[in-house]
Amino acid sequence: QVQLVESGGGLVQAGGSLRLSCAASGRTFSAYAMAWFRQAPGKEREFVAAVSWSGANTYYADSVKGRFTISRDNAKNTVYLEMNSLKPEDTAVYYCAAGRSGLQVGVWGYIYWGQGTQLTVCS
Question: CA 95 to CA 97: how far, in whole Å?
């Protein structure tokens, strides 16, 4: 069992930066691939980025490639999402997820989910 708690969301101006964190409970954190998804009002939850259990491999949605960076610290049971050059269209609730099926882009690839943290980007 893994419990995930996101933090770091807030209100930021377009062009700004923010870092989201996701703290995980449980001793097997390092066994899971981790990902960030986001969901804007009226839209489906969409993949943002994923990182392998070791941190060696990452994968990004085209919409955030070059602007967002996902990383993890297995010693701290935490995964991060560094977001730069933020745009109003990045506004969404951001969710952290854990899975054991590698770097998946579909929600079905992840077992555990956090409650989400709101990011609002104003122009």
Answer: 6
| Long-range residue pairs from 55-60, CB within 8 A, at least 24 positions apart, any chain | 57/103, 58/103, 59/103, 59/105
Per the structure block, which two tokens stand in for 66? 């070059």
SS (H, E, C) 24-41: ECCCCHHHCEEEEEEECC
Residue 106 gets which letter from DSSP?
A: S
What residues form DSSP beta bridges with 33? Answer: 99
State pLDDT tens for residues 63-121: 999 999 999 999 999 999 999 999 999 999 999 999 999 999 999 999 999 999 999 99
Closest-CA residue to 104 (of 63, 57, 72)? 57
| Positive or negative: CA dihedral 7, 8, 13, 15 | negative
Residue 33: Cβ within 10 Å count = 23
Residues in the chain: 123
Strand partners of residue 81 = 20, 70
